[in-house]
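[agent] plan:
  1. take the single chain provided in the ticket
  2. run structure prediction with default settings
  3. attach structure tokens to the ticket
  4. add a short note for the reviewer (M.T.)
[agent] executing step 1
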Amino acid sequence: MAFKIFHRVFPLVAVAMITLLSGCLVRTEEITIAPDGTTTILAEIRGESDDFDQLLAMPSEPEWTVLQEPDLTAKSYDGKDRLRARVEVPYGRSLPHSYAAPGSEKERFDLQFPTEVRRWTEGKRTYYEFRRTYKARRYGCYNISATPFWDHELEERVIEKGIFEVSQQDRRVYLEAYSQSLAYLQWRMFWQGLGALVHDGLLPGDTKAILEKEAMAYVEEAVTEERILGILSRDEAAIAQAVDSFINEVQDNLAMLYHRSVDTTDVGLLQAYTDAMWAVNHNYSVTEALTGQKLGIMLRMPGTIIDANGIIEEDDGMLVVHWFLRGSDFNDTDVPLYALSVVEV
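[agent] step 2 finished; step 3 output follows
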């Protein structure tokens, strides 16, 4: 395989035929700012029971008052399982910036949305300002479908007909793109894990450079079009498992490259690599899971809303602001929410 480093974007899983995204969780929040600046947030997360996995953070005690928990023992497929939670924050105190508990491991990886409410008076007017920013998730450099290198029409043909029902030329081009993107993804994740070790002073920079070249040579040899075709030849139900197994094999062999380059009697160095690669994989997995979700935010403010970057409309006789988002909106882009209201005495 001629392994090409496209300094562009590749998919997190490098296969359009297999959906590894977490299910279709829908997150909604009703945010109410009281005249004294106290902010109350009623959060609801809705979906099927299987969607409430341990990958993503959910509102939990003691930061939140949990009003309803999903029944994770049942296997429902109606999208009606839900978690409901409430928090009330007096003015001047920090508002939630994530559903993850402060200081928890999930706080490092989960969706971050720092939120701020300000209140001030000018003459006879009191202003209320709401700001929230959904922080960007690194994604684009792994999304091949966003580049000119990915043939969307070919992708649709392969999905519609199957890999063995398209022309020989289409099959060859598709397998080449698939194998190259999967190889690059594994190489780049290895590269990023090594970068974390260099940053922490645990790995010399010149050793990292040598390992990068060795890793590139390995993935060129290991991730072949023939191997990918063998995986796609399996029954549909077995393909995802085969992909996972193959990725684990590649990552195990990349770990062996690292082990051969460091002092294997130093348990700390071996554990540091394991921790770094876990963090890389987990961060990307969380981004994938968030990508398939929907978010809706409704904001109530004192007085009259005079500015907002959302949809201003009437609800129960008062103006509110709505924002409707998808998890994919945060891929490589910060998404700010803003609203301003005024009360005139």
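[agent] step 4 note for reviewer: The chain has two domains: 26-138+293-344, 163-289.
[agent] ticket updated
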